[in-house]
UniProtKB/TrEMBL annotation:
Protein name: Cell division ATP-binding protein FtsE
CDD domains given in the database record: ABC_MJ0796_LolCDE_FtsE (cd03255)
One function term, GO molecular function aspect: ATP binding
PANTHER family tied to this protein: CELL DIVISION ATP-BINDING PROTEIN FTSE (PTHR24220:SF470), IMPORT ATP-BINDING PROTEIN (PTHR24220)
Keyword tags: ATP-binding, Cell cycle, Cell division, Nucleotide-binding, Transport
UniProt cross-references to Pfam families, sorted A to Z: ABC_tran (PF00005)
Residue stretches making up the ABC transporter domain: 4-227
Amino acid sequence: MPIIEIKNANIYQGENQVLKDVNLTVNKGEFVYLVGRTGSGKSSLLKTLYADLPLTEGDAVVVGHQLRNMHWREVPYLRRKLGIVFQDFRLLTDRNVAENLRFVLKATGWKDKKAMDEKINEVLEQVGLKHKALKMPFEMSGGEQQRVDIARALLNSPKLILADEPTGNLDPITTDEIMTLLLSIAQKTNAAIVMATHDYTVVQKYPARLIKTEGGKVIDNATIDNL
């Protein structure tokens, strides 16, 4: 069963049409790159997938939720099945790693303290930060903060992870570590991952299916040669 299925969708930023006649399917466990120039519609497509931009034309089903004309009350239920990884981490700077993760769990309906503690330990172990739970964000490197961001995305056992330039602010060695981690997560959890990136070195080093936004279109199965 597809995790993402988009048919004949038109995507807008306000009144401006950004992408036209989008057709796209992503299956369980698949790792997909989303590439394209700045302003070509990558972010708009990602925002549509997590219902930050409304879909009013065409059809799209993401993790079982119909996006077209989705009511705002349904959005939290969609997002509980998603993990979102940001380029700039967006960690709460006034609390430690464990409390950053606990904040998300509480916000998504978790109430049992023991269950929350177990889940926090589980995701920190998944990203190799088991002994960093009490660290403050300012005490951590960029790579470690990105791992916390990924751990946060894993909290609700998502079927789909949307990663927006997750290696954009990282050096090459740390980028390799984060890519290895993301590919491992896709393999071990069977979650689909859609990763937007400008870094074609990463695309060449870790080849996977390429989706390209260009000229108002979404081009599936693009190749390195025509980037």
